[in-house]
From TrEMBL:
One of its GO terms (molecular function) is NAD+ binding. Belongs to the sirtuin family. Class I subfamily. This is DHS-like NAD/FAD-binding domain-containing protein. CDD domains: SIRT5_Af1_CobB. Keywords: Metal-binding, NAD, Transferase, Zinc. Residues 3-289 form the Deacetylase sirtuin-type domain. It comes from Schizothecium vesticola. The active site is at H126. Gene3D superfamilies: SIR2/SIRT2 'Small Domain, TPP-binding domain.
């Protein structure tokens, strides 16, 4: 099926943007990739010959918490080395100018908040690399909402050493980290501290999802902007579907991969780097960054 008329026209998009009030954004890994962060997905989804998806599970943490922690310590370190890009800054500036804008993000790297995105207008769907919780949750409810110590503890120092050959050279085996050398939960004393991210097989935060659904249901959503992921892949597809009122809502995709599948009249698709496209797309509201 042919894409809708003017689907990649920036003037047509600006016209719709200026007539839009309630706007939802859903951000994925492509936005972080524009800051230079590895996404650990697809062909590049390996960390030291481990499949990153296999490490991001409660089972992997149960089997070898030291290995999983080293992977996350490395990701924390990497996220601290990069900067929010112009895409993050454009979304943050847009949020400050439009109180009816809500941004959902799958990214756990804290780059939205480092770009000063207003926290009440941001929902971190998959948590944050820089929050900690107890491995015995939900039995133990201990959390630390923000901790950016790098390294988190001495046993994870290798992850914060950019020159440590044992960490960078995947062919060299890592020395196992005993559980006793990992930080324990200060509340129950028996659980381990673990990254405050949602792992594969774990549900998203129910209260947060209820809150997002309530926001979507409160009134017509004029526009859904999907950044750095596909609007036909979950979870972005689900939010776009829930938020769409036929004939009123434009779904706008900003992604490196062009995909016009499933587009409806009034939808837009812009192919390229979110860091250069978002400032241009939001310029009528945010001006020059
Ligand atoms: Zn605990």
């Amino acid at each position: 099926m042919a894409p809708p008329k003017d689907y990649d026209s920036i003037p047509a998009f600006h016209d719709k943007l200026l007539r839009s009030k309630r706007i939802l954004a859903v951000c994925g890994a492509g936005l972080s990739a524009a800051s230079g962060l590895p996404t650990f997905r697809g062909a590049g989804g390996l960390w030291r010959n481990h499949d990153a998806i296999q490490l991001a599970t409660p089972e992997a943490f149960g089997d070898d918490p030291g290995l999983v922690w080293l992977f996350y310590a490395y990701r924390r370190h990497m996220a601290l080395q990069v900067q929010p890009n112009a895409g993050h800054h454009a979304l943050a500036a847009f949020a400050k100018r439009n109180p009816d804008f809500l941004c959902l993000s799958q990214n756990v790297d804290n780059l939205h908040l480092r770009a000063h995105h207003p926290a009440p207008q941001l929902r971190l769907l998959h948590g944050s690399l820089f929050s900690l919780k107890c491995s015995r949750q939900p039995q133990c409810t201990w959390t630390d909402p923000y901790n950016d110590a790098d390294p988190l503890c001495p046993s994870l120092a290798a992850a914060a050493d950019d020159n440590d050959p044992t960490l960078l050279d995947a062919s060299k085996p890592l020395a196992p980290i005993p559980t006793s050398a990992l930080p324990h939960c200060p509340e129950c004393q028996t659980g381990l501290q673990r990254p405050g991210v949602v792992w594969f097989g774990e549900p998203l935060d129910e209260a947060m999802l209820d809150d997002i659904e309530a926001w979507i249901a409160a009134d017509v959503v004029d526009m859904v902007i999907v950044v750095g992921t596909s609007s036909v892949v979950y979870p972005a597809a689900g939010f776009a579907e829930d938020a769409r009122t036929e004939g009123k809502t434009s779904v706008v995709t900003v992604n490196m991969e062009r995909s016009v599948a499933g587009m409806r009249e009034g939808d837009f698709m812009f192919t390229g780097d979110a860091a250069s496209l978002l400032p241009e797309l939001l310029k009528p509201i945010i001006g020059d960054l």
